[in-house]
Amino acid sequence: MASPRFPQQPPEDDVPGGPLFGAGRDRAPGYLASLRSGTVLGQLRTLALVLVVAPLLILAISPLIVRGGDGGDGVLPLLLCVPLVAGALVTVAVGPRTPRPLPPGQDRERAAALALVQFRQAVLVRYALAEGVILLGLPLAIAAETVLVFLAGFVLGYPLLLWLALPTAGMVERIRRRLEARGAQSHLWAALLAPALARTPGASYPPRPGGPGTGPGPVSKS
């Protein structure tokens, strides 16, 4: 059996699975509509929904985890909220600074591939920062013997999680501007609106703007 051959360069815009060069925010479907679009963006948004549900489950079972007396009347719970505030401030300071800007002078295929990698990394880093604030509240609540400390961490961390890590159109635009801060063109939307390698059955893919054979994007072969 012959060994499979892999492309040496990122796929061109007329190759199924390649970036949709020329696509922008105006071609992006809504959040829910994108979940079945079969695109890279749809996959990332599906993953993000799973991730943002996890803290809600922890919140639901937190009264079963944090047991003890009425620890909410002392000074200790207030003192233990200080690390939570510090963690939230670190998240606010560091989260928006990811990812790093792209270096200028790259061809569009390389820029799109690198932008997509850095976008994914930025989402995970931002999620970890915000989730860390929430999870930090759990051991602190156990130490304080009151679930109110965990609730304080949740109130501080969960809005940051939604703001920094949920790939809405506004969040993608903020990261795109961050990637292009040094003058490079990231083609981030082109990479995100490309058909994903693992295609969703029955999904409809966005059309490729311009280029040869303009019309419906790649569809599964019958």
Largest sheet: none
Radius of gyration: 22 Å
Please work out how many helical segments DSSP would assign.
8
What structural category do the secondary elements indicate? mainly alpha
Q: How much strand?
A: under 5%
Mean pLDDT: 82
- Uncertain regions spanning at least 5 consecutive residues: 1-16, 198-206, 208-222
Question: What features would you highlight for this structure?
Answer:
single chain; 222 residues; mainly alpha; disordered N terminus; disordered C terminus
Notes on the protein architecture:
The chain crosses the membrane at residues 46-68, 74-94, 124-142, 148-172. By secondary structure, this protein is mainly α. It has a domain at 39-192. It has eight helices and no strands.
Question: Helices and strands in order, then pairings?
Answer:
Blueprint lengths: L30 H4 L5 H26 L10 H5 L1 H13 L13 H37 L3 H18 L3 H11 L8 H5 L30
Helix pairs in contact: 2-5, 2-6, 4-5, 4-6, 5-6
Compact description:
The protein has eight helices and no strands. The chain is mainly alpha-helical. Keywords: Membrane, Transmembrane, Transmembrane helix.
